[in-house]
Amino acid sequence: MVLELDLPEGIVNPKRCDCSICRRKGAIVGTVPLSGLRVVQGEDSLRLYQFNTGVAKHYFCVHCGIYTHHQRRADPGLYGYNVGCLEGVNPFELGPVPTNDGINHPADRKA
After folding, report:
1. Is 90 a domain residue?
2. What's the pLDDT score for residue 110?
3. DSSP per residue over the chain, as a string?
4. Is 19 part of any domain?
5. Using one digit for the tens of pLDDT, what is the confidence trace for 9-64?
């Protein structure tokens, strides 16, 4: 599978999340607009996983199981992408990465 990302400023503001799925997969995630991510090859190898509210769309490779990207719940106009899937990037070299409070997701708060 090959994804193409538009990252004119590189990896900006990478984060982790402590929601139930993210803390288990342990990925460091960057963000791009929907138009900034294209599946160039292997789209048939992607599988969709949705849970809880079903708004976020999490994609993973059917062959290796790696999470590649997801359409965000907080802002469906954005994709989060797995920094570890970027060719030539070692996510362990990013230094400290802040963690979002996904347990207390803003969309779950009562108005």
Report:
1. yes
2. 66
3. -EEEE--TT-S-S-BEE-SHHHHHH---EEEEEGGGEEEEE-GGGEEEE--TTS-SEEEEETTT--EEEEE-SS-TTEEEEEGGGSTT--GGGS----EE--TT-GGGS--
4. yes
5. 999 999 999 988 888 999 999 999 999 999 999 999 999 999 888 889 999 999 99
Q: Are 85 and 3 in contact (CB under 8 A)?
A: yes
- 48 contact partners, CB below 8 Å, separation of at least 6: 57, 58, 59
Enclosing domain of residue 59: 2-103
Predicted pLDDT at 104: 84
The CATH number assigned to the domain holding 44 equals 2.170.150.70
Residues with Cβ < 8 Å from 68, sequence gap 6 or more? 1, 3, 46, 59, 60, 61, 81, 82, 85
Domain assignment present for 108: no
110 assigned to some structural domain: no
The whole-model pTM stands at 0.90
What domain count does the chain have? 1
Tokens of 73: 């719940």
